[in-house]
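Batch job 17 of 40 flagged for manual review because the log was empty.
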Amino acid sequence: MNPRRFDRKELKFKPLKDRRNKVNIRRDAVPPEGNVPVVPGDVERAVKKTAEHIRNARAQGSAVILAFGAHTIKNGLGPVLIRLMNAGWITHLATNGAGIIHDWEITFQGETSEDVRENVRLGEFGMWEETGLYINLAIAVGAWRGFGYGESIGALVSEQGIDIPEQGELEEEMRKGTTKELWKAAAAADLLSLLRELRLRPGRLSVPHPCREYGVQAAAFESGIPFTGHPMFGCDIIYVHPANVGAAVGRTAERDFLSFAYSVSKLEGGVYLSVGSAVMSPMIFEKSLSMARNVCLQQDGAVNTFAIHVVDLAQMDWDWKKGEPPPTDPAYYLRYLKTFSRMGGDIHYVQADNRVFLPALYNALATSQE
């Protein structure tokens, strides 16, 4: 059987500067301090409780992991995330493939978020040359350098470009690949194939990022704090570009999953904060927690005492502390509550806009440092 497959080389791409965007970061960025929106009473109580748990976790050296959906970036909260991270309150950041892309586009041109309805109608959704080329190339080079998914894009922004290796260097890497480092030979082969396909010459490929101060991945890369990307193949616009290399995506995403799992293994006494992620966050958390407990139980350890704080926009009428609703109740299918309710720990849910919750959380934590 030889199934027919779509040829991405037939696609026509446009310059990213020609795209109309809904988000302009200079206009829409949420400042970490000042002009904090009015915080409703239930949200204020949730913020205080979350801040208390984070302070206690950091005081004893436990992990504080923040997993979030792409709208956290689209809503201009990059500066808040950077401040939380640089202040030492967050020890690990995690997002999906769209979050990675929006963060990069903001650093590259200060804008992001196209009109999906209109551009699908025109056959132009996702057909943007720079996003597809630079992100895929950075991932392919990052796979060879031993980087993770988010780390590869953080390096692209922080280093203001990509160093393209000599083809001879990659060929030598393929020849000398040892049993211990066959992954590097394979990554070199993937990268060599891509460079030949794109006809890229070795040397410095400069990619300026005039809005790099808004880039969360770059800030994490520079500070050495894990920022992991957890993509689903085919879900993001970079997959439509011929520069996409599936093996490189898999290699870097696998590293990020294992980095995330390691952070979860340090969650005893810590905090897991999930903001606006309906599927990615609960799915990677449950597998990672099971992995962490598997090893801890072998060593007479535990990952049982931690707080989970879930923030989303859905109204919640079911009391999850009393158990799961029956499958006939729509609440049963809210993955971000059903999954977390099964994990143990101390779970909290608040209905809140992330543009209200996260700045309020930062200010609550900053006040406690004064």
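Reviewer: the log was empty due to a logging misconfiguration, but the result itself is present. The radius of gyration is 21 Å. Unflagging and moving on to job 18.
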